[in-house]
Predict the 3D structure of the following.
Amino acid sequence: MLGNSWFKKEKPLLGLTGMGGGAGGYLVGSALVTGVVDYLVVAGGGGGGRGRGGGGGAGGYRTNYASETPGGPGTSTEAEFSISLSTNYPVQIGAGGHGAPGQDQRGYQGGPSIFSTITSIGGGAGSAAYQPTSRATEPGTYEGGSGGGGAGQVTPPANTEGQGGAAVSPPSYVVQGYNGGDAIPDLGIDGTGGGGAGATGTPGQGGAGGVGKSSSITGSAVFRAGGGGGGGDANSGAGGNGGGGAGSHSGSSTAGTHATGGGGGGVIYNASSARGGTGVVILRYVNTLTIANPGGGLTLSTAPDGGYSVTTITHPSNSATTPGPGNATGNVSWS
């Protein structure tokens, strides 16, 4: 029997392509040997900062479904993705970044999510008053799929202006989200919002998290990858639409929502900042194919949508963090 490397796409499987995004199978002779998969890959959101804390950035957001686009400015729909049957494709679901370990400390970056060669980068950490940042002087500290929110300041700025973290960008990475919001540079007392897949975190005192993006890959429009809201001494911001957690100025902030990649909320110095939400991988393919998870390690849920099957892959733990229990890994294959 010829190996998978020989098979190539010959023609669309009649009656199955052109339905909701193009995921289809292909015929060689009379046997279905390859397929085209649409994907949405969202990484874990960043944890919020504690102490005039910025919100965590949303997990990176990548997709090739229909005319939808990845997170961030200026993006376009990614390329068609072909699979071979009976081949294992690695999958990782990013854990959310842990909240700050103590007062006046930043949160942690979320974990990356992966489907085969497609990688989404974890959301950037929310910053804190005694660990302020500038995108110019510390470009990598709060960087992520979307950047973490900037912190309110405790001293006049000296090249640490409370700027939000940067979203990852070429040439190292595909654009996947937006920057975190910038805090007030001169003795602002509140952090600001983490970036979302669809918008920059709201700047200013207690800014809201950036909005996520909506995808209909499951058959229904759902927002994911919203940034966490900023928190601090007097004001706090809402989480971005798409699972971002709210910031707080009077108690603990809110965690990012499970399986959305939302960032965790930032907080005042004497309360606990929140973790980011775990990521998710969603795969859409013709319903003549059957998916499996060889070896386990992932949670799969498959539902029909017209002539397609849609499999949502999530972390087995809805509160997994990094550092902590960490990312979930495994494989998927089709027959």
